[in-house]
Write a structure and sequence with these properties.
The complex is a heterodimer of chains A (345) and B (326). Chain A has a single domain, classed as P-loop containing nucleotide triphosphate hydrolases (Rossmann fold), CATH 3.40.50.300. Chain A is built from 14 helices and 12 strands. In chain A, helix 7 crosses helix 8. In chain B, helix 7 runs parallel beside helix 8. Classes of the chains: A alpha/beta (345), B alpha/beta (326).
Chain lengths: 345, 326
Amino acid sequence: MSDARTPAPERPAPAATVAEARGLARTFDLRRPLAERLLRRDAPRAIPAVQDVSFAIARGRTLALVGESGCGKTTLARLMVGLETPTRGSARVAGVDVHATLAGPADAARALRRRMQMIFQDPFASLDPRWRIGDIVAEPLLEQGLIPPAQAHERVTALLASVGLAGADVRRFPHQFSGGQRQRISIARAIATSPEFLVCDEPTSALDVSVQAQVLNLLVDLQRERALTMLFISHNLVVVRYVADDVGVMYLGRLVELAPRGELFGAPRHPYTRMLLAAVPDVHGARRERAPVQGDASDPLAPPPGCAFHPRCPHANARCRVERPELRDSGGVHVACHAVEEGRL
Amino acid sequence: MTGPLLEVRDLRVEFATRRGTLRALDGVTFDIAAGEILGVVGESGAGKSLTGAAIIGLVEPPGRVSGGQVLLESQRIDDLPREAMRLVRGRRIGAIFQDPLTSLNPLHTIGHQLVETLRTHLPLSAAQARERAIELLRQVGMPAPQARLAQYPHEFSGGMRQRVVIALALAGEPRLIVADEPTTALDVAAQAQIIRLLRGLAQAHAVSVMLITHDMGVIAETCDRVAVMYAGRIVENGPVDEVIRRPAHPYTAGLMASVPTLHGDGRRLAQIAGALPDLDAIPSGCAFHPRCPKASPRCAEERPELALVRRTRAACWWPIVEPGAA
């Protein structure tokens, strides 16, 4: 805990990097209360939700993280904006350590909060039902003291217009909007303070396909106009293809592949990435038989030794069962796989 | 000559609200042949789940079926008394819902639940029912079925739970399975497994499936035919390849274009302008006309009915007829 609050030794990131994870890890303690534990003699139970994740996102770029439910992608998103505290490692945004800054002097913490924002999956849960839309969107501006209250209406109207909503909507309440419109409101609120870094956690998973297309297009447009740096979390590889510059694939808390979008979709390296791609239902390959998928994800409470993917991997051998592969760089593509490294795959 | 397994004729469902009566289904008509998998797609509020609920007699108040007929093997089932309908459900129609946990009792082992269900529908002894339960679990691809009978729902993964639900739906040896978003709560890997399973069952046992989903990819790989719903009506109904590759209704075309795919180089998805209408403000004529790029004055006045366009049927005054398409 305390080591996470101490700023890491200063090694300035390359000028263009806006967001960076350095060996980030987060373990959740699932033990029962002490008394119950003594009575039942429970073994300690901890979920290593995120383990040793490192990446850097350059200004104006989008990194997408994909993986099945329980792979740690949402925890990682929350770590990056300081909603979770890392067990090890650090998150850096706009040149400062996120957790040290948020725990430090109020001025610096507030300045950092203005520069990073998050959009959540559920547009029904993330907006306060008792607030009018105008107040919801104006709140971060006023809280940050970025504008005098008298100018709030004008700014909010402009922000709503930029996400395709009408100025008259400021008087309405969240329940008067559809899911897609609510997600637009969340986006308007998130970009209100002109952040540099925007984290989107499954922003379209709760939306219908035609609404999803509208929201994805909106995010891509806003990113271009405002040179936003984005971390985009999704369980859906196909969606990621439309927004990402780089794609990271997570499995049981670790990055197993990190590659530019074209490489990842054109020449996936890791067997898990290949499996995910093969399992994608594809509208234009009607009646295509999907590749058989092996097994379910392992229990995150007891991740398999060696490479965590080995029980489902068709290429696993003795080494994979005992030795965990490191994420290695080969020509810009990072892969954690013995089979790839040994040239077996 | 045998007729279709399921015939739905001019089905209407209304909701009485303070603002008056809302018509949620407005004249839904379609058939499902024996052994056929019909996909029903549409966006939230289009009426696809309600169509499924109306067929299995589970429309909840304040909703009510206000018109039309549902025939299963040429026999009307929409006017059956509650008890008789309860027997039809389970014995002749199996139901699978999105969240497997809602269909399973957390307090009983899955063996207990399967045996109970089997003995409700079939004249089996406890020992016979147990044998049959193991057989059903094997059919739905459950590894080590004998050992898993003694386990409780929480001991299964999401994909395995949905297999148990499918085994339960199959227990009464139904002719039709109504599956409402059966893969939506599952990871992509488990999703692929469930889809294979449904297709295998339809082929091996000549079970018909009505597969309700918003996921066009799932429809593409699973179904023989697909019905597209918009604002409480079917706007297109045809063979799956035809509807996906050469849709005749402009709404279907817009919907297909907005589906993200692994192909093509575009970084922008096509989008349909506007939003789905509210039930209390469904546009006149063709409900899609305010959003339709091909709309004419006629579209706002006269409601189109389904009519043959090539090999598909579309409810549209200006269907898309590709030049050169036979």
